[in-house]
TrEMBL record, chains A, B:
Keywords: Membrane, Plasmid, Transmembrane, Transmembrane helix. The keyword Transmembrane helix applies. This is Putative sulfate transporter. It is a multi-pass membrane protein. Its main location: membrane.
C-alpha cells in the first residue's frame, strides 16, 4: 500500500525529508516568485478575457494542489500565455466576453481540462502528448506569440478590436485605429519600451556591474513590478483615468471564492475539443520545463503523475474562480534560480498571492490596462522564434513542411485549427515517409562478410541471386510497396532464381506485411524463383513462427546474409 | 516522347505484337466471360439500386477504355459486388431509389470516382491506398458480404425492406416478413440452393468425371446462366408474374446511351467522400487481382497507370449510362483461366455485351429478380471469411483489434463508417506501437564482439557504462519516451558515467527526435554523464551532420558498439 501512496502523493516523499535549510530556501524563492507573479497573473487574466482577480485566484489553489500531487520540485503552476490565449479563443466562440456566463464557462473549461488530465494520468495515457512533434510545438508557440502580441495592441492603443487570428485582428485594429487614445498609447509604448530595455539593456548592464547571473535574472524578472508601480502612480496622480485611460478599476479584496463550474451538456459539448487541446498543450509545455529543471539536480519526473498533478491543479482552479492553468516556463525558471528546493516554495507563493488578493488589490485600482498589455507583449515576443524554420529546412523538408503549415494555419485560422492541422500533417508525413522505405539491392564487399548497396559500393553480385535490404519495419503502409519493388525487379530479369530479403533493419512485420510476404512468395514461386530471408530479428522471428508463412516459404531463413549467399551460390538450382 | 506514350497507352506495347494466336485465345475467353457477365451485370445493377440495363452498360465502355489504358493483360473491369453496395449506400442517403435523380447521381458518382482515380494516377498518389491494411480490407469485405446478402433477402422473399447496415436491414425484413410472396420465395430458395450446389457439389462431380480444373471452373461459373434461363422460362410459361413474382420487365433494346452526369456543386459535395472511398477500395481490389494474375505470367503491373486505366473506365461508365466500376476478382480469374492473352479479350467481351444489350434484352423480360438476388447471395457469401479473426488473433493483437472493429462497425454503421474507422484505428495502433519502442539495455557476449539484451543473455556490463539499443526509428511519437527512459535509467544510478546509444536499428531520426537527443545530451551533461552513439547508419549520419548536434555531443560517435565499449572502458573519466 505504502509505495502506491507515495506514487500518487509525492508530497509524502519530500515532506518527510523537509528541513530548515529547505524551508529558508523555499521562503526566499516564494517571495521573489510572488512579486513576479502579481503583474503576470493580472495580465494573463486580461489575455484570457477575464477580470484581473481571476489571474490571482488561478495561481493560489492550483499551485497548492500541484505541491501535493506533482513530481517536479521546482515547477510553478498558474496561468500561462498560450493557454490563456486558447482559453479566450475557445470561450469567445460560445459566450460574450465580460458577461457572467463567460467567467462560468472559463470554470467549466478548467474543470473539463482537469478531468481530462486526471483521466489521462490514471490510465497512463501520457503518450498521447507525444503526437505533438517538436516542430509543430515550435511553430505553434511562435504563431501564438504573434497572435497574442497583436491581440494586446488594442490595450496599448486604448481601442476596441476583436479576432482570434492574425487577419481578423489586424483588420479590426485598422478599422478602430482612428479611435486611439493618445495618453493610453503613450503609457503603453513607454511601458513596452522600458520592459524591452530591462531585458536587452539592463541585464548586460548589471552583469557588467558585477552582479551574478542568477541575481541579475531575478532583478530583470521584477521589471514588470517597477513599471506597474510607476504607471499606476502616474495615472493616479495625474488623474489620467478621467482622460480615457482604461484602468483595472475595482478588484474585490477577497481570498479565492468557492465557485461551481456549469456542467450543462451543451456547454461541455462545445468545450470538449478546446479542453482537450488545452490539456495536451499545457501538459507538453509543463513537462518539458519540469524535465529540464529536474535534470539539473538529477531528479526524476513521472509524466503520468504530472498529468494527475496538473489535473488536480485545474480542478482546483475551476472550484476557486480561476481558469485553465499549467506549469509555466518563466515562473518555474525564476523559482528554480531563486533556490526553491521543494514544492513547498509553491505553497508559500500561494500564501503570498493570497495576501496580495486580500490586501493589495486596492493599490492596483489605477493600474492602466496598457501596462499589463505591455508586460504580455514583451513576455510573448520572447517566445517568437522563426529560427525553427531555418533549422528544419536544413535538417528535413518534411519537418519544415509541418512547421510552416502550423505557423501559417495558426496565424490564418487561429490556435485550435493550427495545432490540429499541424498534428494531422506531421502524422501524415511520417506515414508517407515510412510508406516508401529505402530498399537497397546489396552485394558482397570483396574479401569480407559484409553486404552493401550495389549503387554505392564496388561489390560482388550473382545474376541468379537478388539480395534486397529493407531499411524500415514492414507494415500495412509499405507492404504493397515492397510487393511492387520485388515484382518489378524480378519480372523482367529471367536470370533470377533466388531473392534474399535481408531483414536486419526490420523491427516489426504486421499482418498486412505478412500477407504481402505470402503474396510475394506465391508470385515468385509462379516465376520459378525462391524467396529467402536473412538476419531476421528475434522478436520478429517469434511472431513469424506463429503464422504459416515459414512452412510455405519456398526458400530458407538464414542467420546471416553471408551465410545465405554462400549457401545459394554453392548449389544453384 | 515515344517511351512516354507507351507508359500512358500500354495498348501501344501489346497492340504492336498482336497476332493470330492471341486473337483466337482472346475470342474464346471473351465468349465465356460474356456469358458469365450477362446475369452478373444485371444482378449488380439491382444491388446498386439501378435498372438492370445499367449493369450491361457499365461493362461495355469501361472495359474498352481499360483495354487502352490498363497495364493488366487479364483484368476484367465492370460492376463488382462491394462497389455496387457502396454505390447504393452513398446514393440512398441523397436521392430516392428508382427516381431519375438516382440514376443521374450514379453517373456523377462514377465521374467523380473516375476523376479521383485519374488525378491519383497522374500525380502518382497510388500509395494512399496502402493505408487500407490487409486486416481492414479482409474485415470490410467480410462484413460487406454479410450486408449484401442480407440486402438481397427482400428480393428472395418478394417483400420491401430498406437499410444500409445489418441492424436496420434485419429490423426492416422482420417488419415486412408477413408480406412474403411464397412463389417468389420458392424460386429464390431453389435458385440459391442450385447455385450453392453448383459450387459445392457440381465442381467435385465434374472433377471426378475427369474434366480439367480450368474447364470445370468455367462451367461452374456459367451456373448462373442456367438458372437464369430456367427461372425465366418457368415464370413465362406458368404466368407467375401475374401471381406477384417481381420480374425484370421491359429493358430497352439499345447500345449504351450517351449520358451526362450532373455537376451540381451540392450533389458533388455530398458524393465526394463516398467517391473517394469507392475509388480507393475499388483500386485495392483491382490491383491485387491484377498483380496475382500478372505474376503467373511474369508480367508487370504499374500501379499508377492502373489508376489511370480505372479512372478512364469510370469516366466511361459515367458517360454511357453506367455506375462506378472496377476490376473484379471472379470475372478476371475466368478471363485468365479461359485463356485471355491481351486486353483485346476485354474489348471483344464488350462487343459481346453490346450485342446482348441490343438483341437479348427482350429475353429477360420474365427474369425474376429473386434469381438475380440468388446469384448475388451465392457470389458474396464466398467473400465472407471469418478466419481472418483467428489468424490475426494468433499473429498480433493490434491487427486483431483492427479487424474486429472494422467488421463490427461496418455491420453496425454501414460501409463508409466501417472502413473509415478501420483505417483510422489501424493508423492509431501503428503509431501507438511505434510510440513505445523496444529499448534493450545491452552487454557484451563474453569472448565476442556481439552485444545482447542483458535481460535475455549472460553478458558483461560495467557499472559506469549504460548501453541502450533502440529497436525503432526515432520520431516525434517516441522521442519523449526515449527521454523518459534514459532519465529514469540514469537519474537514480550515481555510478553511471557514460550512456551509449546503439543505433543499428534506427532508420530515421526526425527533427523532434534530434531535439530530444539534444535535450538528453544536455540533461546528461548536467548529471556529469557523457552521451555516445554507435553504429549510426549512413543516411542517418548524413542528416545528423547537417545539424549542430554532433558538435554539442558530450561523447563520441563510434562505428561499432564493441569499439565504443572498448574505448570507454580503457579510459574512464
Amino acid at each position: 500500500m505504502k509505495p502506491d501512496m507515495t506514487r500518487y502523493f509525492p508530497i509524502l516523499t519530500w515532506g518527510r525529508e523537509y528541513n530548515r535549510f529547505a524551508l529558508s530556501s523555499d521562503l526566499v524563492a516564494a517571495l521573489i516568485v510572488t512579486i513576479m507573479l502579481i503583474p503576470q497573473s493580472l495580465a494573463y487574466a486580461l489575455l484570457a478575457g477575464l477580470p484581473p482577480e481571476a489571474g490571482l485566484y488561478a495561481s493560489i489553489a492550483p499551485i497548492m494542489l500541484y505541491a501535493v500531487f506533482g513530481t517536479s520540485r521546482a515547477l510553478a503552476v498558474g496561468p500561462v500565455a498560450v493557454v490563456s490565449l486558447m482559453t479566450a479563443a475557445a470561450l469567445s466562440n460560445i459566450v460574450e466576453q465580460g458577461t457572467m456566463g463567460y467567467a462560468v464557462a472559463a470554470l467549466s473549461l478548467a474543470a473539463l481540462s482537469g478531468v481530462i488530465l486526471l483521466v489521462m494520468g490514471l490510465f497512463r495515457l501520457g503518450f498521447v502528448a507525444n503526437f505533438l512533434s517538436h516542430p509543430v510545438i515550435a511553430g505553434f508557440i511562435t504563431a501564438s506569440g504573434i497572435i497574442i502580441a497583436a491581440s494586446q495592441l488594442k490595450h496599448i492603443l486604448g481601442i476596441n478590436a476583436e479576432g482570434h487570428n492574425l487577419l481578423s485582428l489586424t483588420l479590426s485594429l485598422v478599422e478602430h485605429l482612428s479611435e486611439t487614445n493618445w495618453i493610453t498609447a503613450l503609457i503603453g509604448i513607454l511601458a513596452t519600451g522600458f520592459l524591452f530595455w530591462v531585458r536587452k539593456g539592463l541585464k548586460p548592464l548589471l552583469m557588467r556591474l558585477g552582479l551574478g547571473g542568477g541575481l541579475t535574472d531575478v532583478l530583470v524578472k521584477t521589471g514588470p513590478v517597477a513599471i506597474v508601480v510607476a504607471t499606476t502612480a502616474a495615472v493616479w496622480v495625474l488623474g489620467l483615468a478621467d482622460k480615457g485611460v482604461k484602468i483595472v478599476g475595482e478588484v474585490p479584496q477577497s481570498l479565492p471564492p468557492l465557485t461551481l463550474p456549469s456542467f450543462s451538456p451543451a456547454l461541455l459539448g462545445q468545450l470538449i475539443v478546446p479542453a482537450f487541446l488545452i490539456s495536451i498543450i499545457g501538459f507538453v509545455e509543463s513537462i518539458s520545463v519540469a524535465q529540464t529543471l529536474a535534470a539539473k539536480k538529477r531528479q526524476r519526473i513521472d509524466p503520468d503523475q504530472e498529468l494527475i498533478g496538473l489535473g488536480a491543479a485545474n480542478i482546483g482552479a475551476a472550484l476557486t474562480g480561476g481558469f485553465p492553468v499549467t506549469g509555466g516556463f518563466s515562473r518555474s525558471v525564476v523559482n528554480f534560480d531563486a533556490g526553491a528546493e521543494t514544492p513547498a516554495a509553491g505553497a508559500f507563493t500561494a500564501v503570498g498571492l493570497a495576501i496580495a488578493a486580500l490586501a493589495l488589490t486596492p493599490l492596483i485600482f489605477f493600474l492602466p490596462k496598457a501596462t499589463l498589455a505591455a508586460t504580455i507583449i514583451v513576455a510573448v515576443l520572447s517566445l517568437v522564434d522563426f529560427s525553427i524554420l531555418r533549422r528544419s529546412w536544413t535538417y528535413s523538408k518534411a519537418d519544415f513542411t509541418a512547421v510552416l503549415a502550423t505557423i501559417l494555419l495558426t496565424l490564418a485560422l487561429g490556435v485550435e485549427a493550427g495545432v490540429s492541422a499541424g498534428v494531422g500533417l506531421s502524422v501524415l508525413l511520417h506515414l508517407y515517409k515510412s510508406s516508401k522505405p529505402h530498399i537497397a539491392e546489396v552485394g558482397q564487399v570483396p574479401g569480407t562478410e559484409h553486404y552493401r548497396n550495389i549503387l554505392r559500393h564496388d561489390v560482388i553480385t550473382d545474376p541468379a541471386v537478388v539480395s534486397l535490404r529493407v531499411d524500415e519495419s514492414l507494415y500495412f503502409a509499405n507492404a504493397r510497396y515492397l510487393e511492387d519493388k520485388i515484382q518489378n525487379r524480378v519480372a523482367g530479369d529471367k536470370a533470377v532464381r533466388h531473392v534474399i530479403l535481408q531483414c536486419s533493419a526490420i523491427n516489426e512485420i504486421d499482418l498486412s506485411a505478412l500477407e504481402s510476404l505470402e503474396a510475394i512468395n506465391d508470385r515468385l514461386r509462379e516465376m520459378g524463383v525462391q524467396l529467402h530471408l536473412s538476419e531476421v530479428k528475434g522478436p520478429v522471428m517469434d511472431r513469424l513462427k506463429r503464422a504459416h508463412f515459414l512452412s510455405e516459404l519456398t526458400g530458407k531463413v538464414y542467420l546471416s546474409q553471408f551465410e545465405a549467399a554462400q549457401d545459394l551460390l554453392k548449389c544453384p538450382n
